[in-house]
Amino acid sequence: xxxxxxxxxxxxxxxxxxxxxxxxxxxxxxxxxxxxxxxxxxxxxxxxxxxxxxxxxxxxxxxxxxxxxxxxxxxxxxxxxxxxxxxxxxxxxxxxxxxxxxxxxxxxxxxxxxxxxxxxxxxxxxxxxxxxxxxxxxxxxxxxxxxxxxxxxxxxxxxxxxxxxxxxxxxxxxxxxxxxxxxxxxxxxxxxxxxxxxxxxxxxxxxxxxxxxxxxxxxxxxxxxxxxxxxxxxxxxxxxxxxxxxxxxxxxxxxxxxxxxxxxxxxxxxxxxxxxxxxxxxxxxxxxxxxxxxxxxxxxxxxxxxxxxxxxxxxxxxxxxxxxxxxxxxxxxxxxxxxxxxxxxxxxxxxxxxxxxxxxxxxxxxxxxxxxxxxxxxxxxxxxxxxxxxxxxxxxxxxxxxxxxxxxxxxxxxxxxxxxxxxxxxxxxxxxxxxxxxxxxxxx
Length: 444
What we know:
Elements lengths: L1 H24 L9 E7 L18 E8 L6 E3 L7 E4 L4 E5 L2 E5 L5 E2 L5 E2 L5 E7 L5 E8 L14 E3 L1 E5 L20 E8 L5 E12 L2 E8 L13 E6 L22 E3 L5 E3 L5 E6 L2 E6 L9 E4 L4 E3 L4 E4 L10 E6 L4 E6 L4 E7 L1 E3 L7 E4 L2 E3 L8 E3 L8 E4 L1 E3 L5 H35 L1
Parallel strand pairs: 11-21, 12-22
Antiparallel strand pairs: 1-2, 3-32, 4-31, 5-6, 5-9, 6-29, 7-8, 9-10, 9-26, 12-23, 13-14, 14-15, 15-16, 17-18, 18-21, 19-20, 24-25, 25-26, 27-30, 28-29
């Protein structure tokens, strides 16, 4: 019996050495989770299924090798936009030709087709954009980075906050001329874009005509809005109340009848209509302006000037954002805590192009190791629950970071010493039993 007890102890010590050695070997493996050998004593059973009152036990057995899914330290600032670390619960789901695997190792990059893959070529799963450009949440797919150019967008809305100086005097020159600064009080320009992404300039000149009234003259690229061959500006009257606020409806509202290309809606917002984007062509000393082949927004450009005021302070545009832009190429990417992949473009635009998903299990100890720092679902792990990071019990993501191995090297080195001592002690049990057997044999 003692031989078997000692032998089981050797097996257990050897298993402990294997587990500890594997932990130490993977101390630098990204996303690795350490294991722990768990042992149980064993007793011989009687015929009736009970142990005797004086049973001494028949040794030890390996009950389980369990993995420790504790959080590893985050190595931040890796400099790679698709390096991802999970902070909290969850696993990345990757697909190996349809075989679903789960991992905490977040070293991802794109392949030649733009798909986001790990070092083994497995496809990272998440939520892609639908045909309308919105995230198709709830529909998992292999994430792909669309590296094509961002198509240009013609300007459809300009929102302007500005002030006109109430103490300004009426210009001495009553006939407007953009080249004569004495024919107006102030001016400012807003960049706008046509359907091909060409940049143009909407210039507005403001001339005071009387107390609380102004005329706004509008030109695009110094040309008439609808007729590039002309320099005739659209003139629109602006009227302010006694508090300096723009009057947009009712008596005293802006008179737009003398401005064929600028109208005002019931909401008090102007619309620039009939714009013909133009370009100049110079032959010798002659410069001509004509359509450049592009178009403006089909429904016109909304010009929101509701925040324009007339007060006794310096005149000027406070802000004038517009929503058009030129063609752009991806210049950078980043992933936020909720898994959204943001692409930044050379035209100053940015947008979400996908979202990384996370998956969790009721019993992570039930996952089966699949190699390559991956695990597989089993019956014991329970059904996978997949969602966006920071939803439910799922953790968050940290971009340009990797989760390091959770192996505690100091503890593992101590475990080596303990396993070695256990091995020596059990070997001594067998050696002692052998000596006793030899003594017994010599007595006979």
